Amino acid sequence: MKLKLSLIAVALSFSSQSFADVNVSGFVSINAGKVLSGDGVPQYGVEPTFLADYPIVSAYTDEISFEPESLFGLQVSADLMDGLSATGQIVARGANDFDAEFEWAYLSYELNENWTLQGGKKRLPLFYYSDFYDVGYAYVWMRPPADNYTWQIFNYNGLNLLYNGYVGDWSISGNIYGGREDDESNKLLSEFFFQEPTREIWKDIIGGVIQASNDWFEIRATHMRYTNERYRSGNIVVWEDGDTERDGKFYGLALNLDFGDAFVLTELNRLDLDGNLDTYMVSAGYRFDGITPYVSYSEFDQEGDGDTEQHNTTSVGVRWDFHPSAAFKVQFDKVEDDSFDLAVAGDSESITIGVDAVF
């Protein structure tokens, strides 16, 4: 971590002395939590656990801990002039022993006032909160509902074409992207589900996003296709149809209503991959002069050949914006795990508190 941060500092120093206009910003979350009660999954050796974040395996147990969701992020943007810019983002997570890793690293070129071409490593724009998932200050909850944000792959390397413009009173944005991701040691599959080294490959990724909003209403639709290949303990996985590859199709729809004080947030997703995997969430809250109480419900439902994974989470929390750049949050989560054979972490009740800040 120290080496990576030193290299970035040197790069910033060099850039500031050359021709680039460099901007540095950051975000931090200091969170703590514990499981109040829970069943765990005894047949798999899982103690009472609340899995707060699936991709990076942020898991709370009955011992209070600051590590699962605390993180520090730094984003560096360099304007190279004539429409060209470079962006890099590193994140150090408590769930990964605060080892700093690059989450974003890409170049952008403005083709004109509406269109921008980008290439490099970015976050897969599957969900409404994907682009700013790590920036806790940007949303009301402790974290986006875990039942809805469960996928093991969340980055990709490739190209994308962005559009931003207006149609009457509507703000319109779009994104067409393609690429691949090869995660040689996927944390969710390796450490939690299979408990053996697992390499996860998503290739031939191609997708698109369209988003429109006006004063109080916002709609976002997304679709992605990809081919999945997997290795467990170095051996390629052969799926039930005898093939070593399988094709997936992802669909997503988000509808948000914001009336200034009151708001309703919704998101619905489906993954067509050896059957359908459906997730959704709905959340509502009200802003009282910097204090925002909210409720949320999310659900995950997957049915396969004899296997069923079903779990839901009911959340109640409060956000207090005690500073222009920081917010205090407290959230209670109740998980019901109704899975058969594919139990994730069992039923649980947990509490988390924390502070999110940007700078």
From TrEMBL:
<feature type="signal peptide">
    <location>
        <begin position="1"/>
        <end position="20"/>
    </location>
</feature>
<protein>
    <submittedName>
        <fullName>Porin</fullName>
    </submittedName>
</protein>
<dbReference type="InterPro" id="IPR033900">
    <property type="entry name" value="Gram_neg_porin_domain"/>
</dbReference>
<keyword id="KW-0732">Signal</keyword>
<dbReference type="Pfam" id="PF13609">
    <property type="entry name" value="Porin_4"/>
</dbReference>
<feature type="domain" description="Porin">
    <location>
        <begin position="7"/>
        <end position="356"/>
    </location>
</feature>
<dbReference type="GO" id="GO:0016020">
    <property type="term" value="C:membrane"/>
</dbReference>
<dbReference type="GO" id="GO:0015288">
    <property type="term" value="F:porin activity"/>
</dbReference>
<dbReference type="InterPro" id="IPR023614">
    <property type="entry name" value="Porin_dom_sf"/>
</dbReference>
